[in-house]
Every structure is written in structure tokens, then in C-alpha cells.
Amino acid sequence: MNKPSTPSYDVIIIGGSYAGLSAALVLGRSLWTVLVLDSGQPANRQTPHSHSFLTRDGETPAELTRIARQQALAYPTVSLQDATVTTVQPSDSSFLVRTNEGEVFTAKRLILATGLTDLLPDLPGFAECWGISVLHCPFCHGYEVKDQVVGVLGNGDEGFGLAKLIHHWNPGLTLFTNGPSTLTPEQNAKLHQHAIPIIETPLVALQHRNGQLDALKLADQSVKPLQALYARPAMQQSNDLALQLGCELDEMGFIKVNEFGKTSVEGVFAAGDNQTMMRQVLIAATNGLRAAVMITRELMEEKF
Ligand SMILES: Cc1cc2nc3c(=O)[nH]c(=O)nc-3n(C[C@H](O)[C@H](O)[C@H](O)COP(=O)(O)OP(=O)(O)OC[C@H]3O[C@@H](n4cnc5c(N)ncnc54)[C@H](O)[C@@H]3O)c2cc1C
Questions:
Q1: Cβ contact 14:247 at 8 Å
Q2: Using one digit for the tens of pLDDT, what is the confidence trace for 23-69?
Q3: 61 Cα to the center of ligand 1, angstroms
Q4: What range does the domain containing 168 cover?
């Protein structure tokens, strides 16, 4: 009996969110066969509304994904499968991609569009409020909370930088250093000059109703009423696929790409949050488009 051959594609896109589906759309329109494999965990999944995307300002993340899937899959050479990719490896002039279900596919080019994972602190209420009233980015949500009682969680240079940024939207903010301050005397003086209170008492919990923050509970039993809290939790790559392929990461852990979205490994591209500090839906979609255009140029050169 003949062994069924491994399904092969021009391009496999790992991650079917904004970066991945944007690439799929452009590759489909460029007549390439494309498989998108997606585990369905976009970074903004808990956010009620996504902002700053011209024509889509205020849309829900789920609706953005629904439209993106519908438009990319309208092209007959594009297909999508809900699956988690566990291993990737080069094989001759292509790549072997294996899912958690044991399915294997091959492709001439790969796009890693796998986003990042936020490492939320183990603080009661933090995860429930994440993206709803615990916010990482004023460009995404700053306008909506500009008239609210807001805090910034952070210490040292990072806390100072975030407080300085948020002060533009919320001049009445409070800085919570969550332990002894590591601010420099100059930073302290600047915060004092702008009447920004600094609270060093550690946080023990976020009091909230369905993710909507009411107050911070501090270790000294005091309670600080608050409607929104800015925080910048650590992030990491969502998986080790880039490392399996030997793609170089930069010192901050982003996948290194050139101006065309190519990684350090021939045939492998990266797009979206996994390769840039500029964490925005529109930028992720732009990165996907860029990778798709460059792959088209490469495959076309090989064919012509
Ligand atoms: C709380 C929060 C709120 C935000 N709000 C806004 C906003 O209002 N406006 C804005 O412009 N931006 C916002 N952002 C940023 C925005 O969500 C990201 O920039 C955007 O989601 C990045 O798109 P991406 O396609 O690179 O990655 P993601 O959207 O994170 O998607 C990555 C996809 O890859 C999949 N994946 C990962 N590993 C695998 C694997 N091994 N196999 C298969 N699939 C895999 C994941 O399941 C996921 O579906 C927000 C981010 C956060 C965290």
C-alpha cells in the first residue's frame, strides 16, 4: 500500500492572528498555497475593545479575528487549521512542521507569527483585570481611562519611564513601586515636581468586579481606590520554535529580523509581536504583509 504523502505547501504560517492572517491574505492573493496553523491564544484576547487601528478603532479582538479569517480564507489556496505546532525542522530545501496531534506538513517557507506570552505576576486579581483595567499601553487604552483614578506599577528606570509617559494622560497618577523604591534622587525630584505620589508598600491583591478594578490592597492593610493600573509584566516567546530552527534572538528575546522580516535562518520569516517592541495590531498586520511580499519575491525568483 502506498504511504500517504506529506501535505506540502509553498508557505506554512505558524500563528493565525493579526500578523499571520495578514501574511496569509497577501500570499493567497499572490497565488501561493498556504497553511495557517493556529492555537487560538492572541495576546489581546481578554481586552474588551482594541484601539488605534484606523478603520477598526474600538472593535472587539474576536471580531477583528473573525473578519481577518474570513478575508484570508476567501482565497482558495489558503487554508487554516486549529492546531499547536510543537516541532519544526529543516528538511532538504523545505521545512517539516509537526503539530501536537502528530500531523506533519512541509513547506518551502515558514513564517513565525506566534506572538508573545505575558508573564503575569502571581498577584490575586491581576490576571482577571489584565487588558480590562490593568493596562500595558496608553496608545491602546489610555484615552478610555484618561479621566479615571489611575496608578502605575513599576520601580526604578522602568517605573519612572512608565509614570512619565502615563502622566500625559493622567496627571493625577500614583506610582506604586511594590517594595523599596529604586528610583534615583533625580527621578524622585522629577516625580515630586509633578506631584506624583510614590507608594512603596507592597501590593497584596487587586480588588475588582469582573476584571474592573476597584482598589489595590496593600501589605499594611490599607486600601487604595483605583480604576485602572498600568503595568508592564515580563514577556517571552510563546514557544521554542525559533530556537529549534536556530533563529537568532536579540538581547531582549525578540526574534532578529532584517528590514524584510527575514530571520537569521534562510527560508524562515517572523512577523508580529515576536520580533518587535512596537506591540500593536496594525504593526503586526504590517509585518505579516511585509513577510508575504518578500516570500513572493523569493519564490518567484526561484520559479522564473
Ligand atoms: C492586554 C493587551 C491589550 C492590547 N490592546 C491592544 C489595542 O487596543 N490595540 C492594539 O493595536 N494592540 C493591542 N495589543 C497588542 C496586540 O494584541 C498585539 O500587538 C497583537 O495581538 C500581535 O499580533 P500577533 O499576530 O503578532 O500575535 P498574537 O495576536 O498574540 O497571536 C499569536 C498567535 O499565534 C498562536 N501561536 C503561538 N504559538 C503557536 C504554536 N506553537 N502553534 C500554533 N499557533 C501558535 C497563538 O495562539 C496566537 O493565536 C494589546 C495587547 C495586550 C497584551
A1: no
A2: 999 999 999 999 999 999 999 999 999 999 999 999 999 999 999 99
A3: 9
A4: 121-231
